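Design request, tokens follow.
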């Protein structure tokens, strides 16, 4: 009995051993939580956050060589005798290639391209007026362009101003610029970011049909880095409005109605690596850059070609099923079908946006 007791006691680790192990593990756990806290919170998001109410998806009908009258009636609308005027309003940062694609695609349908850019980023850093410096590139749009400059506020050293407040102020300034552009009641207004591009046939449908809801979100195909990496159909912030005196320029949810498959949203779709770095430090989510090496060109290039997340983040999902399904790199696609026509017509110029063109300069 004494021998058995001795054997059992010899198998037990002394309490001091567990205490030492605990002391060694605490710094590791603290460091892990500190460096990966956001990733951990995103993983457990389904436990602490609820999804917004679901959208009511409106079917979207389109085929080549089908009359507009027939297409309008398929949607439950009626054809107009003449098209609405269309105003395309965007807040611009540095997405010059996406701006060219957008305006080339929409040029036949848009009355005025209204573009507002600031001399500071949303994070309060001074920035060049990229559009103004490259105005000649967009001469094809001629008198359709109404350009405004928003006098941004430079953040003082050590300050922690909310970038979403600065973004909201800039979007609010768009209302005055739209009025200066001549928008009036009954015109159609597109509210979206530069890289959220409605398809031309979507704009044509909405400008030629009566009965269109006064506010309607556009469901866009979501891409990352280029059209080689299709993500999903989760992009919903783009909207069209039948303008009236109460219309306010916003980039948030404004109705439960959304028109299915209405265009493209190509995030971080830049030609040059320096443009990636600029956006990573300039836009409203710049706090995701947690380490300086995130901006190293070789790292960015590697992640672009792999379809990996630049910020080492997990997907923002409301269920573990969707989160786990989207973890890991975005699958490559070899399809270049149903993409902006101007890009396909100028494939050599825009090869960095097409399958197989992931290498950047």
């Amino acid at each position: 009995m004494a021998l058995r007791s001795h054997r059992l006691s010899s198998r037990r680790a002394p309490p001091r051993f567990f205490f030492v192990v605990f002391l060694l593990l605490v710094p590791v756990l603290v460091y892990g939580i500190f460096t990966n806290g956001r990733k951990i919170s995103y993983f457990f998001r389904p436990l602490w956050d609820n999804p917004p109410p679901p959208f009511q998806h409106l079917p979207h009908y389109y085929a080549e060589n089908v009359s507009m009258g027939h297409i309008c009636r398929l949607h439950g609308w009626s054809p107009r005798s003449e098209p609405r005027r269309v105003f395309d309003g965007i807040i611009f940062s540095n997405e010059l290639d996406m701006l060219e694609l957008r305006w080339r695609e929409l040029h036949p349908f848009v009355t005025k391209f209204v573009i507002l850019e600031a001399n500071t980023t949303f994070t309060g850093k001074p920035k060049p007026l990229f559009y103004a410096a490259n105005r000649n590139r967009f001469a094809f749009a001629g008198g359709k362009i109404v350009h405004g400059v928003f006098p941004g506020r430079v953040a003082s050293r050590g300050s922690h101003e909310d970038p979403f407040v600065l973004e909201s102020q800039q979007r609010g300034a768009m209302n005055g610029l739209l009025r200066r552009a001549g928008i009036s009641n009954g015109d159609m207004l597109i509210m979206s970011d530069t890289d959220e591009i409605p398809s031309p046939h979507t704009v044509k449908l909405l400008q030629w049909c009566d009965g269109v809801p006064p506010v309607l979100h556009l469901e866009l195909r979501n891409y990352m880095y280029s059209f080689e990496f299709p993500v999903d159909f989760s992009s919903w912030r783009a909207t069209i409005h039948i303008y009236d005196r109460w219309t306010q320029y916003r980039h948030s949810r404004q109705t439960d109605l959304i028109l299915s498959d209405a265009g493209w949203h190509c995030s971080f779709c830049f030609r040059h690596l320096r443009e990636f770095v600029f956006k990573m430090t300039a836009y409203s989510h710049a706090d995701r850059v947690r380490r300086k090496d995130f901006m190293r060109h070789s790292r960015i290039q590697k992640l672009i070609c792999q379809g990996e997340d630049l910020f080492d983040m997990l997907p923002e999902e409301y269920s573990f099923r969707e989160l786990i399904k989207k973890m890991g790199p975005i699958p490559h696609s070899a399809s270049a079908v149903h993409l902006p026509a101007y890009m396909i017509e100028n494939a050599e110029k825009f090869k960095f946006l097409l399958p197989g063109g992931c290498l950047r300069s």
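Comment from the thread starter after seeing the answer: thanks! The chain has twelve helices and 14 strands.
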